[in-house]
Amino acid sequence: MSSFEFDGSPVPFAEGQTVGAALWAHGIRSWRTTRFAGSPRGLFCGIGVCFDCLVEIEGRPDRRACLEPAAENLDVRTQIGAGRADHQV
Amino acid sequence: MPTTRCDVAVVGAGPAGAAAAVTAARSGARVVLVDAEARPGGQYWRHGPGGGQPAEHVHQWRELNRRLEQALASGRLVHLSRSRVWRVDAAPAGPVRAQIVRSVRGGEEAATVEAGALVLAPGAHDRVLPFPGWDLPGVVTAGAAQALLKEHGVLAGSRAVVAGTGPFLLPVATALAEAGTRVVEVDEAGDGRGWARGWRAAAGSPRKIADGARYGALLARHRVPVHLRNAVVAAHGDDRLESVTVARLDDRWRPLPGTTREVTCDVAAVSYGFVARLELALHLGCATTPGPDGAPAVEVDAVGRTSVPGVLAAGEVTGIGGADLALVQGALAGTAAAAVAAGREPAPPHPAVAARRERMASFAAAMHRAHPVADGWTGWLTDDTVACRCEEVRVADVREAVTELGATDPRTVKLLTRAGMGWCQGRICGPAIAAITADATGRALDPYADLLGSAARPVAIPVPLGIVAVADATPSPPPVPDSGGSS
Amino acid sequence: MESSPDVAVVGAGVVGAAVALAAARRGLSVVVLDRGPVAGGTTGAGEGNLLVSDKEPGPELDLALLSLRLWAEVSDHVVSATGGGFEFEPKGGLVVSADTAALPALHDLAARQRATGVDAIEVRATDLRTHEPHLAPDLAGGVLYPQDSQVQPMLAAARMLQAARRLGARIRTREAVTGFLRSGDRVVGVRTASGDVAAGAVVNAAGTWSGEVAALAGIELPILPRRGVILVTQPLPPMIRHKVYAAEYVADVASDDAGLESSAVVEGTRAGTVLVGASRERVGFRREMPLPVVRRLAAQAVRLFPVLADVSLLRSYAGFRPYCPDHLPVVGADPRAPGLLHACGHEGAGVGLATGTGHLLAQVLAGVEPDLDLRPFRPERFAEVTV
Hints:
Chain A is mainly beta. Chain A has 1 helix and 8 strands.
């Protein structure tokens, strides 16, 4: 089975699955913390409307896990707050 | 930036949009079908894991998909997959121009579609009413549970509570149960008399009755109890859902004291009906009218024309009505759009088709009357309940905007609290903020005016500034037809 | 029957709120009337700029400097009176130029502003990115204005009204003023759909619609709308420290051209979004946001901050900046209609000039000599010009 990396650990996925579906199937329920309270968030609407499932993929923050196709060796990371910590001044 | 010129542009490839695209192409129009997903079908027909056929009403889908493939093969239809319209402009007596952001590997690219006529079929998404803890991972919309299962073969959880109101709860609960999730219970906030009325109205819709009977039998087989006048009023857990509190409701949906139960579960799938995606229609200036659920809907004539010349609409955006109605509306709008693009007056619908559409519309209206959202639900909110998930605005903040800062309408609440100003632009919290505002103001919610005020979104979906900054280019020939797949 | 108030303020935007609060703090009884909700008109589509940097030395800059001092004081008062603030932030402004040829004019303006008490520090091209790390690397230079500040304008209006209410003011929203009560020449109150409101004086603070309100009293006030479009991005971590704008903005503010002008004005907010302004068009009360305007604002923002190319636009809004032919506001008593005072015509600077305007009008209402000479702002000046 193919897999991608989530915070450094492999997550298997089936052909056609999104990153969010694969994470969920692997028992992972959250991959983002909110900007103010730091609360965990994962899938909510599942169809690209709510933007709760934002995640960093290949260094790009704000990707919707429910829409992004999973791909071999993709680097997926938990998004902390608004992400882009390297851009903070 | 590539510009594609065509006769008819269709936004959305669900039942309404797909039907519009094939009928417009069959009428001789060059058609571009723009859709966010990799494959057509919308939220209704979801493809199985690995690209398999949708399971729901598969014969309908096979027929429509065959016609889509024919149109694609003929070259009259181009499918722009993984593409979203972030803005559309209609010049008086000019073409309609849709600005598109397309997902490609590693980023996005800009595209423009210029059309003689536009069919808006953007569909709808779940309406969820907030409750304490609804932001815990594991609380999902019923649509999310359905998408996980149907599209990806993934169970949303091992123990599920399905809650909310409306006919959508049953297929979600049965699908989960059939796939192996232990569905602990279905909590329908309505009173069941609504169900009886709704199914009676389905007398002219034998397939609806067959569906209802099938869901009932399946739930019975899996021993899934359906509790009427019950609702999930709180969710609990540290960093994921561990249990929910269910309460009985009175006839106005106020939770009854002393009736709460704790139910252990790892997923709660919630839906209180649907919210139509109105932003493109509102930006174009299309006239609206209260839909069957009282919420704003795009006003259309017998063939789907809106008040804006060259712009047609079909499906949920014209009033939440379900897939069968959307298919009929889409076919009518596709034929009419081809005529409009050719500068002809569209022919009126065949009387039999018009009658079928009327029958389905009255069924939809009956189902909505059977499942009204009563306004007492705000009684299960606490001050600390998150009202706006994106901006983490609490119910207390919304109430303070009313009681202390003088807001009396949802727009002012938004300006003062940031509720609805985040990533989703109020798509999720909009109906709830309107209801909490009305409640705090001491007046009844006006489902039309209160929701319309927060439904306008001049930027229809988030789009990178670098894409916005790209100027329109001169039109180029249509691209090679793209049948989808992850690009 | 309640006794008639000393002052009826028409307009519950930021200017009306500042007038109401300043008058209430002087012990006057106040009623505020608005045909819409709190901060629902001109204020609701503003950015919340408190700027000294974009003003030539003269009466408007004097009013801006007074207002800036008062904003800090009003913010403290509102926080202690209501427990809530309005995101007052003395973040500073940075005016930049991409064109070396434009620098002398920029530096000359800064020198003249310094002479009137503005803090203005020249910044060399090589130092720009120590102030704003994400600025484009090829800019020619700029001027830093530490006094430039920001508030959340809707909250500012709502919180000032809340504080005024604590002092007894009454706020009546969704009550349109349809006419004035007269006693001879004198204005002695207003008429609304729900009845007459007698008042010792009436203040016209109706923003872009102040000309229409004045007309109800038979007074001509040439206040016209200029449309401004603002883009709002997704939430970000703090990436832009100052209000950063291109030097061309100053020229646009003072322009008489009816066509589209735009120059990038880019700033972060406490909520994490970045605001991108500022277009100015004279197109009457038309609210649409033409695609070319949106594209141009986006392009100008990305020109200043290339990092924004990958940042999502979430929403945009259009509003009307109420301007007068001479680009000065109208502040003071109107001799053509005794009892009527104006606080309007602030163009795009209404938020920034609100506290000073409120303070000066409250002084007039209380019979105190105002701290600034109001003659440049006198309402009847346009009639004099045309004669």
